[in-house]
Amino acid sequence: MVKPWTVAEVQRFISGMERDRLYAPLLLSLMGLRPAEVVGLRWADLDLKLATVEMTRIRTMNGNSEVVEKDAKTAAGERVLPLPAWVLDALKQFRARQACERLAAGEGYTDSGYVVVNELGIPRNTRHLREHAYGLMSELKMRRVRLYDARHSCMTYRFCEKSEVDDLTTNPLTCDFP
C-alpha cells in the first residue's frame, strides 16, 4: 500500500498548484473524491450557494481509451458533501475562468456541462486528470502518489494531528483550526 502524503506534503502540493488551471478539481481529489467522481461532475451537481456537491455519476475508463459514464456503484457512492470554503472559492474562480475560455473560443467551445474540461470545453477523463497531477508532482519534486491514493491524504490532512475536526472551512495552507 502506498503511504498517503503527510500534512506537510499536502500543504506543499496545494501551495505549488495554486495557480494551476485544474487547481479546483485537484482540490476535490484531495477532499476525498475518486478521480472518476471528479471527472464525472457536472456544474449542475454543484450548489455554489449552499456549498455542496452531489455525487451521483462517474466517468471511468474502459481500457486506456474508451470513456464509460455510469451511476455510482452503490447507494453509499451517491452522496451530498459539504464544500469547504476554500474549495468553494476555487470552484467559483474555475467557473469564471471557463466562462472567459468559452467567450475566447466562440463557436469552437463545446458546452458539455462537465466541470473538468479543457480550454475548449471538451471533457477530460481520469487518465488526463491523473497525468496532469503526476506532472505537477514532478514539477514540485514531490513523492509521487497515485491520484486515487492521494485522496486518502484527506484524512491525514483534515486532522492535522488533532483528534477531531468539526469545521471543514480550515485554511489548507496553515492548518489553523477555529
UniProtKB/TrEMBL annotation:
* InterPro entries registered for this protein in UniProt: DNA_brk_join_enz, Integrase-like_cat_sf, Integrase_catalytic
Write out the entry's keywords from A to Z. DNA recombination
> What are the GO BP annotations of this UniProt entry?
DNA integration; DNA recombination
| Tyr recombinase domain location | 1-178
* GO MF annotation terms: DNA binding
Please give the name of this protein: Tyr recombinase domain-containing protein
Q: Which organism is it from?
A: Streptomyces fuscichromogenes
Classification from the root reads: Bacteria, Bacillati, Actinomycetota, Actinomycetes, Kitasatosporales
